[in-house]
Amino acid sequence: PEAPVFNNGEAEAIEFQRMFAEQGADRLKLTSALRMNATFPYITPIVTLPSRPAMRVMDAGVRDNYGYRVTLAYLHTFREWIAAHTEGVVILQFRDTQKDLDVHPSSSSLIGRMVDPIGSVYDNFVRVQDQDYDLMVQQFSGDNGFPLRVIDVQLRHSDEEQISLSWHLTALERKRVLRTIGSPENQRAFGRLREAFKGPLVNLLVGAGEPGPAGDHAPPR
Questions:
Q1: Exposure string over 180-216, b if 16+ CB within 10 A, otherwise e
Q2: Residue 176 host element (H or E)
Q3: How many CB atoms lie within 10 A of CB 72?
Q4: Contacts of 57 by beta carbon, 8 Å cutoff, 6+ apart
Q5: What does the domain layout of the chain look like in residue ranges?
Q6: How far apart are CA 46 and CA 61, in angstroms?
Q7: In this structure, are residues 145 and 83 in contact, taking their beta carbons and an 8 Å threshold?
Q8: Cα–Cα distance between 94 and 76 in angstroms, integer?
């Protein structure tokens, strides 16, 4: 910022490659990173990193369920390069739950009223993060110097067709997942994705290997 900001903020992320360079961080397998990212209490063993003091890894959804904080921090760091060398950024998000959920009436029974507060906290956990993400994207888009588009592909399903949160999906659940790809909503999303890569960006990529008027190759952006 142009003006100084006085804030004793805490770092909420580390650069893994530098932090664990002596422990072979550059040899970390993608599957290992995904496994650490999906550490769920009482379901999968907690991963402990070789730091002093030792750090225990929790499921990424606790803090940043869809990775927007890391994504926007990355875009902010390289915003000048992105503005100078690209036509903009497209964030393609694959959601395991739909963003606009149906509203269900509250239970009127005594047991229902007792468990509703707990259920509300759990059910609204992702919704609260969605609202925070929308605000972050809007604020970032206003002062980044390049176009930013977010496209959602959603796994929409009814209460009668629940898909388990599991390492293994049944044949029926896999069919339900594949079926949602062809839904009108997701097809419109894929259409917006194709539209985002039309125009100057596609023309530039197609002509990147063709000699220019002076015989030079057009620089890719």
A1: beeeeebeebeeeeeebeeeeeeeeeeeeeeeeeeee
A2: helix 171-181
A3: 19
A4: 36, 37, 39, 46, 47, 48, 49
A5: 10-59, 63-207
A6: 15
A7: yes
A8: 22
Strands 148-154 and 89-95: parallel
d(CA 119, CA 18) in angstroms, rounded, equals: 40
Give the dihedral sign, CA 209/213/219/221: negative
Encoded tokens for 20? 């664990």
Q: Give the rounded percent of residues in the chain with a pLDDT score beyond 70.
A: 72
CA distance 209 to 216: 9
Of 22 and 125, which is predicted with more confidence?
22
- Arithmetic mean of pLDDT, 145-173: 80
E-strand stretches of the chain: 47-49, 55-57, 89-95, 148-154
What's the pLDDT at 200?
53
pLDDT in tens, 83-98: 999 888 999 988 877 7
Helix pair angle (125-141, 110-123), 10° resolution: 30
State the SS3 of 71-121. HHHHHHHCHHHHHHHCCCEEEEEEECCCCCCCCCCCCCCHHHHHHHHHHHH
Residues in the chain: 221
CB atoms within 10 A of CB 176: 17
**Amino acid at residue number 137:** V
Six token digits for residue 185: 């909503």
